[in-house]
Write a structure and sequence with these properties.
It is built from 6 helices and 5 strands; from the N terminus they run E-H-E-H-H-E-H-E-H-E-H. By secondary structure, the protein is an alpha/beta fold. The model has no long low-confidence stretch (mean pLDDT 83).
């Protein structure tokens, strides 16, 4: 999708797996061999800054792997190098395309994920990734 100048919407929940996915994609972007440095990466959530700042302060409650990474690299794993935190559609629209955007809500019923889906769904170059099973009767479940 990205190589064909399309954008990717990754529909995520507000607080649960969003941190795990944000960390994972930021790490993937950090790998020079992945070829992803040419593309933009963003997290679109009303409280994205607050969620990430809170996660930075709670490392001792997270997995051994994250604690070990923090000790070895002397860096907080939630100090994202490639993920741009956005709080509005105007901010995410300023992020250069092609881009990958993690946006809430995961069922596409409301929120920024719904707005991006509505804006991008008419272009076959764009893709949507659903990160969890959606409740029956939702747009996410229909997809």
């Amino acid at each position: 999708t990205l190589r064909n100048s399309g954008n990717v919407l990754i529909a995520v929940d507000t607080a649960g797996r969003v941190l795990e996915l944000a960390h994972m994609v930021d790490q993937l972007w950090s790998n020079k061999d992945s070829g992803l440095l040419a593309y933009s990466l963003a997290l679109l959530n009303n409280v994205s800054y607050n969620v990430v700042e809170f996660a930075k302060s709670q490392i001792e409650w997270m997995s051994e792997k994250l604690m070990k990474m923090m000790g070895e690299k002397k860096a907080n794993p939630f100090q994202f190098r490639h993920l741009k935190l956005c709080h509005s559609m105007a901010e995410v629209n300023k992020v250069p395309s092609p881009k990958v955007v993690l946006a809430t809500m995961q069922d596409l019923e409301s929120g920024f994920a719904r707005e991006l889906f509505t804006a991008w769904c008419s272009n076959p170059k764009h893709s949507v990734i659903l990160t969890s099973r959606c409740d029956e009767g939702t747009l996410g479940a229909d997809l």
